[in-house]
Every structure is written in C-alpha cells, then in structure tokens.
Specification:
Order of helices and strands: HHEHHEEEEEH
Strand content: 15-25%
Shape: globular
Largest sheet: 3 strands, antiparallel
Mean pLDDT: 88
Structural class: alpha+beta
Bound molecules: zinc ion
Number of domains: 2
Radius of gyration: 16 Å
Strand order of the largest sheet: 1-3-2
Number of strands: 6
CATH topology of the largest domain: Arc Repressor Mutant, subunit A
Distance between the termini: 40 Å
CATH superfamily of the largest domain: Winged helix-like DNA-binding domain superfamily/Winged helix DNA-binding domain
Length: 139
Amino acid sequence: MSTRYWLRRKLHAEGMRCTHPRRCITEALEKKPCTHAELVEITGLDRVTVYRNLLALQEIGLVYKVYLPGHDTMYVLCRGEGDTHAHFFCKKCHKGICLPAGSIQIAEPWKSRVERILLVGNCPEQCKSLPHHEDAARN
Ligand SMILES: [Zn+2]
Ligand SMILES: [Zn+2]
C-alpha cells in the first residue's frame, strides 16, 4: 500500500484532511525517525507548520515521540493497525518498531487505561550482538 493512500485513509478515518504538509512529514518519517529540525530541513516547510502538523499527527496516534538522553526529541511514524500496541525504539540504530498487539501483558485496572506503551532498548535485528554493558559504559 503506498504511503499516500495509507495516509489518506488514516486521516479520513479521523476526520482529517490529507494536506500537503501532513504528507511531506509522513513521507519523511517513513524513511527514518526525525527531529523537528530535520523535518524542517527535509520538507522545506516552516517550523510552525511542522510543529502544528506533528501535534495533529500525534493526537491521532500516527506519530509518536521519543526522548533519549543526549538527543533532541525524535518523531517516529506508527504504521501499525488496530488497538493500542507497544512501540519498541532502538536506541542504537534509531528504528521504531510496532510490536504485534498483545506483545506486552498489562493487568487490569491499567490495561484498559493505557494509551501508549513505549519500550526502549536494542533491537533484535542488527543491534542484538552488542553487549548490554556497553551502554552503561557509554552513558
Ligand atoms: Zn505503531
Ligand atoms: Zn537497532
């Protein structure tokens, strides 16, 4: 499914229009998570437009943000479908992964109240071989 079609469908489901800035931002984030400054540079949109549209995209759960110590806030695209699913963000390669629904078990009364779950660590793909203690040494 092309990003353009997918985005249009998602936005329309939320009663939002698929505007040029939203499309530019989403297409940039599809390649990799970006900071606000990077999005301004990549899209050529002004700072306020990027900021406002990022807010709107976060409100409907299409974009989420990640803070890592020593980094500017990164915005990550969610391509997952359906209910609340957890996000895993790799602090080494800065990849955001939508985990399958139900990957994380949460007990009631919290389960029905959770809006977002963000996990941070080393992804099991290219970053699995790096030993854990290296992080402690670096931070
Ligand atoms: Zn997701
Ligand atoms: Zn990784």
